Amino acid sequence: MLFLGLIVICLYLNEFTLAFTPKTVWGPSAVFTDSKIYITGGLQPKNPNNFDGLTFSNEFYYLDVKQPIVIKVGEPLPWKELSSQGLPDHAWSAFSNCGLDDSLILYIGENNTFIANFVYIYGISSKQWNSIATTNPPLSNFHSQTQTVCDVKTRKMYRFGGMLPSSPENKYNYNLDILDASTLVWEIVNAPEQRFDHTGTLLRNGNIVYIGGTIHDNGVNSLADMLKLPLYNTYDNKWTSMTTTGYSPARRACHSAVLTQDGRIIVYGGCDADIAAVNDDLVILDTSQTVYTWSKANVISATDPPLPRCYHTATLVGDHMIVLFGRDNTQLSNETFILDTSDKSNYKWVSEFDPNPKPSTQNKNEKKTIKSR
Fold this sequence. Notes:
Distance between the termini: 67 Å
Strand order of the largest sheet: 25-29-28-27-26
Number of helices: 2
CATH superfamily of the domain at 192-297: Kelch-type beta propeller
Helix content: under 10%
CATH architecture of the domain at 192-297: 6 Propeller
Shape: globular
Structural class: mainly beta
């Protein structure tokens, strides 16, 4: 018993006290729940200077955003490592809590072994990974990191398209694959096209908005139109399209998209077909009106703005978008950047994030004035 007790204490210390620095990766997967950003998987080269000898990762860790974050050059963030025992190496995977209690669900995108069973559940309290069997699964797992969305009300995950490039012959998914996380039953729905490396964003009206990526048609890959967007409505299960107005963003793939409370989809980063960064790396799609409208973000910076990147993660915490990892066509990035999205007219890159900001002097004076009346 004493020996087992020592093991438990050592595991506790390893998770909560020892410093942990993640390996620099691109194509990781992130989920935000219970004030934590959980990260797992991704790709890393043996030689970071030329991207040769790619290996998959099964690292699993989180960043607690209940605490203030201050970004300083050369200083690591307060990452906490978690056990990845039982989890295969992977990248481009879908990661969500999907309305489940005390659990996270991971849908493997790609790994070296082409595993037949590619859905895993992580118990937040038990701190254990388990492979689970599902009914009527898709024939193969595909890249699904950014195009998979989850409706927490119905506990359904929606994955449109995707690609499996490590197979002997590239495979492209022509379906919308829907997993009911409550029953673990898949439903396969026809899709209008074969698309990969795009983003999917679920709106309050039930529409999933698919942005960017690459379309495979008759053996040819081309970047998708950013002005005409496919929509899938989760209420009536029908496909439609939206022709947008306003600014014309550069076509891109491997970008990120987050949704604000007022209906703005903030699209960040992305690359062209040669993995070269796009020149307008921060664009906004306003979905609050009947016709969606694009605009180019007006950016001011309290800190150095990030270099353009793709294959990263972006997580919205309150009014702040936290960008992690990624790469361009020349280098990896293990830097973290924070975008303040609270002012629609002026987006600001900042070096600090406080989940519980103190009232400004102006706000305090306003409160005093109100009380004195």
